[in-house]
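Ops channel
N.P.: pipeline sanity check, posting one input/output pair.
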């Protein structure tokens, strides 16, 4: 594989510097180019086309001279007229009758600039119509013109990538040496012009897609190697980057306002959004990096084995001390081996491990050892797993953690009264669990352990007078806003916020309307009043025409005896329910206290079991969603997505039964949150391993288990056989 020659590094070694001195002192060196030619031939500095790299070598020689290692021949500078770019004698003619939709543009094509006439047209367009008003590019270059029967519509220019770019380099995951070796595999889109006179919907995203489709082939034909990645910059003061997002480019951060010549870190330029487009999905492996390196898309099963998972999900957590971060990884590994036991039991008497764990958990409540900081690395890895998916369901839900037995624990909140009416104390866990469209858990995006406080007796405000930020339901909006922020980093992935009936309140739908990049799918709770007949929400959709039918599995439900205020429940065998599907688009009215806000347009889906078995309650669901409904298939898709909401209920069961988080014992609520955070990730991994085994039984055992675990399982299986 062709790699970039490290000319400066090669010439900087003492032996090679001595060789250059020998040439300068004993050979008849006419000028610097002559010296560079000899040096290139001696050290085989050739590019992929077999041409000697004279300009790179001259630059390295100047740097050696500046460092005092050599003295180069003097350069006689002559006054030369500055060369002007070749241009047309007149402006490029404006295109004629350009349609408003890109699909109607006739003979849309990209023209690779090769001839002198094409270069003059390209230069003229960039000098007169591009905001940078220059046509100069650096490094290896390709230029394209956007042509059609209507005339010239714009152009592209590709050239060398930025030498250093913190956000890009972190996203790729390479170090300085790897960047210097492989930077030539990254090329920059230095110019992108749609002429100001052209107003054609989706033209920009269309030609962006066309350019990346042919760039690799054209680049290899000219320079004899293939690039892996394209980078580009969007000036957010002028543009929003919508066309890049529509063409599936990835937003990875922002620049720091520096240019290639900013030697004194003045950061005088405007900050720009950085977009990248991988031409090769496996480019990290091609660069010799791990598939999990950097912060790009991550395969679901990558790094989940017993040797790597804790480092991947907790490594580098910002806890105020690197020793605490290392302790977190070690503690998570230990706890995962016996998740249902207290840490001292999981540690099997390892005094150092127990001491380190409890020192970490018992840090002051004001320290950086917080639930969000512990979960931050896992959230980052979850986001990367989401990037590899086309659709991700983000399941929101809450669960009570009862710690009434911890009499000396401070910071707990008052939960709902139990069956006998006695007060209980603990924390409300509200979390967002990301799953694939077929239900495999990708990770925990956000989790909060809230200590609910009863309303003060002095607070006489009506519920309608209390700001939504002060209500318990605001946590649903917080988590939705978090998803909106995350969606901007993965424009190629569709996020759907799936919630239970508790999230059926107007403010959440109103929040989604302000930024519709994340859809919501919520089970309806309130049979709202409507302004038109039949004047009730549920009755309106029941009268809608039938759109289709679907079979949904109903799980078995065990019998439950009456206890206190809890009602008795009969046993329910599992079955396949035949559901009839209807839907209707409705205007969700604002409450009276939001009279100034317009109604929200949503789709109401109705699924009902018309003929349930005898002595069985019929299944009937009402779902409110902002997902577009154009066919019965869309209704069925939404219904199947909602059935996967039970995954978060299963995860809660794993946390309570498998990880015993409601049996933790610490002296403050903050310490409980820290221990819970570790168990949230352990519970996710247990659930994923279980479901992966069911969904993909052919998955190699090495993906999830260490060698010793595999040997143990084989011995156990042999014994049972």
């Amino acid at each position: 594989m062709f790699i970039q020659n490290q000319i400066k590094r090669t010439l900087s070694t003492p032996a090679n510097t001595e060789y250059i001195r020998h040439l300068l002192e004993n050979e008849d060196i006419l000028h610097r180019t002559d010296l560079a030619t000899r040096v290139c031939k001696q050290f085989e500095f050739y590019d992929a086309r077999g041409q000697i790299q004279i300009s790179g070598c001259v630059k390295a020689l100047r740097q050696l001279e500046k460092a005092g290692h050599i003295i180069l021949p003097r350069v006689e500078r002559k006054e030369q007229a500055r060369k002007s770019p070749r241009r047309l004698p007149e402006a490029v003619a404006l295109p004629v009758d350009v349609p408003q939709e890109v699909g109607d543009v006739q003979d849309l094509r990209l023209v690779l600039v090769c001839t002198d006439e094409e270069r003059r047209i390209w230069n003229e367009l960039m000098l007169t119509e591009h905001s940078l008003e220059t046509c100069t590019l650096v490094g290896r270059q390709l230029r394209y013109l956007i042509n059609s029967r209507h005339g010239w519509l714009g152009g592209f220019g590709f050239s060398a990538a930025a030498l250093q770019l913190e956000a890009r380099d972190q996203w790729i995951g390479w170090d300085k040496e790897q960047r210097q070796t492989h930077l030539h595999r990254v090329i920059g889109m230095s110019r992108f012009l749609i002429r100001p006179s052209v107003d054609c919907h989706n033209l920009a995203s269309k030609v962006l897609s066309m350019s990346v489709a042919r760039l690799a082939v054209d680049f290899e034909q000219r320079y004899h190697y293939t690039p892996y990645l394209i980078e580009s910059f969007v000036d957010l003061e002028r543009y929003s980057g919508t066309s890049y997002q529509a063409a599936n480019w990835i937003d990875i951060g922002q620049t720091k306002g520096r240019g290639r010549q900013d030697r004194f870190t003045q950061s005088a330029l405007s900050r720009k959004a950085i977009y990248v487009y991988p031409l090769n999905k496996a480019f990290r492996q091609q660069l010799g990096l791990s598939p999990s390196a950097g912060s790009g898309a991550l395969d679901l099963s990558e790094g989940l084995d017993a040797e790597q998972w804790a480092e991947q999900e907790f490594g580098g957590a910002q806890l105020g001390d690197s020793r605490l971060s290392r302790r977190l990884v070690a503690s998570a590994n230990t706890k995962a081996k016996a998740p249902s036991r207290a840490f001292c039991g999981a540690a099997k008497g390892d005094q150092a491990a127990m001491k380190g764990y409890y020192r970490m958990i018992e840090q002051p409540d004001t320290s950086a050892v917080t639930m969000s900081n512990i979960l931050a690395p896992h959230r980052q890895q979850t986001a990367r797993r989401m990037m590899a998916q086309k659709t991700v369901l983000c399941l929101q839900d809450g669960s009570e953690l009862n710690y009434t037995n911890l009499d000396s624990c401070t910071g707990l909140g008052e939960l709902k009264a139990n069956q006998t009416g006695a007060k209980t104390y603990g924390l409300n866990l509200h979390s967002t669990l990301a799953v694939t469209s077929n239900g495999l858990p990708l990770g925990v995006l956000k989790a909060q352990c809230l200590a609910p406080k009863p309303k003060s007796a002095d607070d006489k405000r009506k519920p309608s007078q209390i700001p939504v930020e002060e209500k318990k339901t605001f946590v649903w909006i917080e988590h939705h806003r978090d998803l909106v922020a995350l969606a901007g980093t993965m424009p190629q992935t569709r996020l759907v916020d799936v919630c239970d009936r508790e999230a059926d309140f107007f403010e959440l739908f109103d929040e989604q309307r302000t930024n519709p990049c994340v859809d919501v799918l919520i089970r309806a709770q309130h049979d709202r009043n409507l302004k038109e007949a039949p004047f009730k929400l549920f009755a309106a959709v029941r009268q809608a025409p039938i759109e289709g039918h679907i079979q949904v599995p109903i799980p078995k439900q065990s019998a439950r005896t009456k206890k206190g205020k809890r009602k008795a429940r009969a046993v329910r065998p599992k079955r396949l329910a035949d559901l009839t599907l209807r839907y209707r688009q409705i205007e969700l009215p604002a409450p009276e206290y939001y009279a100034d806000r317009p109604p929200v347009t949503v789709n109401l889906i109705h699924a009902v079991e018309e003929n349930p078995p005898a002595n069985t309650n019929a299944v009937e669901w009402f779902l409110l969603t902002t997902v577009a409904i154009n066919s019965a298939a869309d209704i069925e898709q939404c219904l199947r997505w909602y059935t996967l909401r039970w995954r978060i209920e299963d995860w809660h069961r794993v946390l309570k039964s498998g990880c015993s988080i409601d049996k933790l014992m610490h002296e403050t609520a903050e310490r409980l949150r820290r221990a819970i955070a570790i168990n949230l990730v352990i519970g996710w991994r247990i659930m994923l391993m279980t479901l992966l085994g069911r969904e993909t039984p052919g998955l190699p055992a090495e993906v999830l288990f260490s060698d010793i675990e595999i040997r143990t399982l084989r011995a156990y299986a042999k014994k049972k056989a």
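N.P.: looks fine end to end. The chain has 22 helices and 17 strands.
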